[in-house]
From TrEMBL:
Protein name in the entry: Cytochrome c
Domain Cytochrome c intervals: 72-171
Keyword Transport assigned: yes
Mode of membrane association: Single-pass membrane protein
Keywords of this entry: Cell membrane, Electron transport, Heme, Iron, Membrane, Metal-binding, Transmembrane, Transmembrane helix, Transport
Signal peptide: none
Listed GO CC annotations: plasma membrane
Length: 172
């Protein structure tokens, strides 16, 4: 009753339907956009000059990290730590892909024995203060160019402050 020919016909019908759909989509795209290629810009026929039209004001709100850190919530920071958990451990001496973070706040940078730090971090004679951690967690590759940490960073200052407050409550 159900043989190979029936299966072949069904598969052919599905493939044919997809082909018709793709060709129809291509034709509609060509008709709607006038046959132009991707990325081509159409010029306006008439441009109206507006006084001050070229000036674009960017209002970037500068948030003071110290003020946010004072009201940081370690409980929320524990949830943010889930992004770090894949590479870092909180137990003293238990290194993962990254060094352990037990007592990291206040610890010297690149001070975990037995972990191979990048030259960038090894060359810093500083401690992991909340301010240094904030800069590093915001954009690791900008704060320490050449670091081997593959994390993109945390955009929200509140997330960074909460995470640092949580890490400060672990060990130390």
């Amino acid at each position: 009753m159900f043989d190979t020919m029936t299966l072949t016909k069904a598969l052919g019908a599905v493939c044919g339907s997809l082909l018709v759909f793709l060709l129809g989509s291509w034709a509609a795209e060509t008709i709607y956009h006038g046959g132009g290629g991707h990325g081509e810009e159409k010029q306006q026929a008439y441009v109206i000059e507006v006084e001050g039209g070229d000036e674009v004001e960017e209002v970037e709100e500068e948030v003071d990290f110290a003020a946010v850190f004072e009201t940081a919530d370690a409980g929320k920071g524990e949830r943010v730590f889930n992004k770090c958990r894949a590479c870092h451990k909180l137990e003293d001496g238990a290194n993962g892909t990254g060094p352990h973070l037990y007592g990291v706040v206040g610890r010297e940078i690149a001070a975990v024995d037995g972990f191979g730090y990048s030259d960038t971090l090894s060359g810093k004679d500083q401690a992991w203060t909340p301010e240094n951690l904030n800069g590093f967690l915001e954009a690791p590759r900008e704060w320490a160019p050449g670091t081997t940490m593959g994390f993109a960073g945390l955009n929200k200052v509140e997330d960074r402050a909460n995470l640092i407050a949580y890490l400060d409550s672990i060990g130390g």
